[in-house]
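Form 7-S
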Amino acid sequence: MFVGIIGSILPALPGPPISWVGILLLYFCNGIETNYWLLGITLIIAIVIGILDYIIPAKGTKYFGGSKYGIWGTNIGLVIGIFAPIPFGFIIGPFVGALVGELIYNFQEKERALKAATGSFLGFLAGTFMKVFVSLLFFGLFLVLVWQNKSVWF
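Output:
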C-alpha cells in the first residue's frame, strides 16, 4: 500500500494499480471472505485513473498551446527533479523540463513556451493529486478491511 502511495508521485510506478494489488492480496489471506464487487469497482477506478494519468498532462499542455516537447520535458524534468539534491525538486523539475522542452521546440516564442510549460505543469499536478487521492482512498479502504477482519489476525 505504501509503495502505491509513493508510486502516485514517482513517474515510474503506477500508484493506484499497485494500491489495488494491495487490496487484492488482502483477500488472499485465510479467513477473509472475498468481495468481488469491491474488487471490481476498485479495479475499474484504478484503470481509469491510470488512463487519465496519461491524458490529463497532455491535454493540459495542448490546452495551453504546448507541443510534445513540453510533455516529454515534463516527464524528463520530473525524473531529474526527483534525484536532484534541491528541495522540492520533484515539483520544480516538471515545470523547468516543460519550459526547456518548449524552448527547444521553438526558441523564438518564449511567452508561448512559458504558457505551455505552465499548462503542462498544471496537468502534471492535477494527475498527481488524482493518483495520490485515489491511493490514499485505497489505503483507507485497506485499513477498514483489516479492522473488519481483525479476528483473523488477533
